[in-house]
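Case study 2.
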Amino acid sequence: MSAALELPAAALIEADVRRALAEDLGSGDVTAELLPAAAAAEAVLTCREPAVLAGRAWFEACFRALDPQTRFSWEAADGDRVTAGAVLCRLGGRARALVSAERQALNFLQLLSGTATTTAAYVAAIAGTGVRLLDTRKTLPGLRAAQKYAVRAGGGHNHRHGLYDAILIKENHIAAAGGIAAAVTAARALHPRLPVEVEVEDFDELAQALAAGADRIMLDDFSLPDLREAVARVAGRVPLEVSGNVDLAGIGELARTGVDFISVGALTKHVRAIDLSLRLRLI
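Prediction:
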């Protein structure tokens, strides 16, 4: 696994899985009681459509939470493109554990693979431009680390993880602080080691953000001609990020304006799960 695909902390993955299993199992899987307690089983996981795989660690953790001896033999790694009908994994263990953990394991894998697959489509649309695709904080509650991992699996990059690891000054912050210069000055004084980004809505604010010494400037809802003009005015002095109403159809034109980053909320907000199948047999 590459450094870019470094997993979140094991404790975060385990916490995700504990919550998921708790809401599904409750006081116990009453249907799984139909299976003999000592029965063993094997299962085959297949993908029913083309996809980019992501989420193996969450998938495995669901089963191992109920049966630590569950065995996995993977045919694809996170970040791999897989075809419709491809076998992704063969697994085996206690039958009751396999059927009880199945739904939540698939939920994680289909969700995260969906995020990775969408991300890969956006990355392909800006290939060759040098622009980096970024995610946002518009993630499913409680699953930010998981979805941001899936974005990396799809070839994208992470913006800030939360409100604690970077400063992003937007219109409300600017108004409350008394202007862009005042907001940037206050940010530097309070958190001198954190990067400071300023969101601007017109050329006047762009000039103010440049003068204030922002580390990055976010161009919010600029037209294509205005984006080109902004790139020309900044002339490489500070990285520029595009944000706001970005979709797959238009991202290529945005990238060709010469900006450095494009952030897309749809990567993690508009989720379409990948169609997966897990078939089990007793042994």
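The chain has a mean pLDDT of 96.
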